[in-house]
């Protein structure tokens, strides 16, 4: 069984991403800005998932098993992307790239405007769905397995689409993640769209991508079993992510509500009215009585 698929280019890119993160941590420490431990753990989990997807068994078997190919895509995009964004939360996001790179990006106004547009929820969600479905069209899917450069582009598209999808949810440019309930429906819609794709793999009557994977047994696994395993992984991940998202954002929303909800102040008691005497008594007898109004706080 092959466990490792070493690619020098990918190794260099992963080491570069890790080195930039360590560099940013050192800069923040010199400035006496702390990064929570959970944030650093989230980043290294994301990098670890990328390493497994790109250099581990999923990559070694992706041209022989459809289930391995699907596992690679799920680890690379759907699972790794949210962990990477959690690890890059501000202030680390501001120091991750070197200053020359930041200046270069800052001068490209069209690039900043394009990114600001793409990360909007109503844009990021359709882009994500389009990318996922487009790369599962047989022409592109099989072409990626035959041509390494197209395969690398496929991986980049999946990772970029997932980063765009999760950006408005995690909001790495802020120090704290908001608990808006619209995020539940947003992720629910994204996961349901890919769940339908997974159902296609599970319930398809024919063998998909037979030109590259064949119709016979694959590494001791039947073609239908391999295909249904790939779809089952997609559906299982979608269900897990929907459950986690609902639970997490309901908890965040309730915590924010409890933190901002101020107690209602008690009403201030009024002093008892003094009985009128003499001329005042006749005046009070004919004048209309002003009834005290209850304060809004007392209602």
Please report the total strand number as a whole number.
0
Shape: globular
Rg over CA atoms, rounded to whole Å, is: 29 Å
Indicate the multimeric state: single chain
Listing every helix as H and every strand as E from the N terminus to the C terminus, the arrangement reads HHHHHHHHHHHHHH
Class by alpha and beta content: mainly alpha
Number of helices: 14
- How many domains? The number is 1
Taking pLDDT < 50 over at least 5 consecutive residues as the criterion, the unreliable ranges are 262-269, 276-299
Summarize model confidence as the mean pLDDT.
85
Instruction: Report strand %.
Output: under 5%
Largest sheet: none
Can you walk me through this structure?
This protein has 299 residues and is mainly alpha-helical. Helices cover 70% and strands 0% of the residues. The chain has 14 helices and no strands. Mean pLDDT is 85; it is low at 262-269 and 276-299.
Notable features of this structure?
mainly alpha; 299 residues; 14 helices
Summary, kept brief:
It is built from 14 helices and no strands.
Architecture blueprint of SSEs:
Layout: H1 8-30, H2 37-55, H3 57-60, H4 66-87, H5 92-95, H6 99-106, H7 109-118, H8 121-135, H9 138-146, H10 148-170, H11 182-203, H12 210-213, H13 223-260, H14 279-286
